[in-house]
Structure to design on (229 residues):
């Protein structure tokens, strides 16, 4: 069975500092991995995805994520945080080798202080 | 380009009453999803359509939940009768192709409160 974990309910970062939102996964085969962001009273928005190829994936709003197969992780990163990055972030995974559905993590609330 | 449209945005009903949610996906998107999102949790898939066919409804509680996408465009999710535990946000999403490799485009959701 596939699963995804976001070990931190909340991450607090000062504006201008680098940020990391952690995600680990478990699949039986190779994974498809996604990050989505949810702003208040709005639907989830796609940030980036890893399907195959380069382990470092670049996405929207200056975010990037690094796929690490040995650590089964797909952490979301940004070199310099903005107050407007404050939102709820969801990691999601799907097992390539099956017809399984995408599984979302429980979310991490990112708070950027001025 | 218009995004995924959902209505109503908020709904408050008493338990045992029926309720229905409507979703209009992005034009041209063949794939449509209904998700349930409880407070503090990620979305959980209820049903996925490819055009008018429900290809994954394994997580849909069929004793009280039903969904339809008759012409392969807009969709309705119904609960009858609603229970207190159904209070949640119901999200609709659409995607441009078959399968789940493509990004999904989410609507703003319908927040259901069952009293």
């Amino acid at each position: 069975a596939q699963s995804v974990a976001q070990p931190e309910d909340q991450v607090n970062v000062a504006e201008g500092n680098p940020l990391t939102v952690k995600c680990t996964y478990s699949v039986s085969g190779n994974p498809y991995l996604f990050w989505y962001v949810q702003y208040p009273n709005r639907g989830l928005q796609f940030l980036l995805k890893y399907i195959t190829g380069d382990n470092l994936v670049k996405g929207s709003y200056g975010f990037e994520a690094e796929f690490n197969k040995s650590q089964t992780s797909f952490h979301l990163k940004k070199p310099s945080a903005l107050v407007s990055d404050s939102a709820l972030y969801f990691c999601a995974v799907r097992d390539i080798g099956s017809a399984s559905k995408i599984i979302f993590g429980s979310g991490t609330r990112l708070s950027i202080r001025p | 380009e218009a995004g995924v449209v959902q209505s109503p945005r908020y709904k408050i009903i008493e338990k045992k009453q029926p309720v229905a949610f409507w979703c209009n996906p992005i034009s041209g998107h063949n794939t449509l999803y209904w998700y349930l999102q409880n407070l503090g949790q990620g979305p959980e898939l209820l049903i996925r359509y490819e055009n008018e066919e429900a290809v994954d409804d394994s997580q849909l509680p069929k004793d009280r939940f039903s969904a339809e996408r008759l012409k392969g465009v807009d969709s309705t999710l119904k609960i009858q009768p609603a229970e207190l535990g159904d209070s949640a946000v119901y999200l609709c999403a659409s995607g441009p192709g078959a399968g789940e490799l493509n990004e999904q485009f989410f609507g703003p959701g319908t927040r259901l409160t069952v009293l």
